[in-house]
Amino acid sequence: MKAYTYIDRGTFRLTEKADPEPLDCGDAIVRVTLSSICASDLHIKHGSVPRAVKGITVGHEAVGIGEAVGACVRHVKPGDRVAVNVESFCGKCFFCKQGYVNNCEADDGGWAIGCRIDGTQAKRVRVPYADCALTPIPDEVSDEQALFTGNILSTGYWAAKISEIAPGDTVLIIGAGPTGLCILQCAMLHSPERIIVCETSERRRAFVAEHYPGVILTTPDSCLDTTIAMSAHGGADRVIEAAGSDTSFELAWRCARPNAIVTIVALYDRPQLLPLPDMYGKNLTFKTGGVDGCDCARILALIADGKIDTTPLITHRYPLSEIDEAYRLFESRADGVIKIAVYPD
Ligand SMILES: [Zn+2]
Ligand SMILES: [Zn+2]
Question: Least crowded by CB within 10 Å, which of 83, 139, 311, 341?
Answer without folding.
Answer: 139
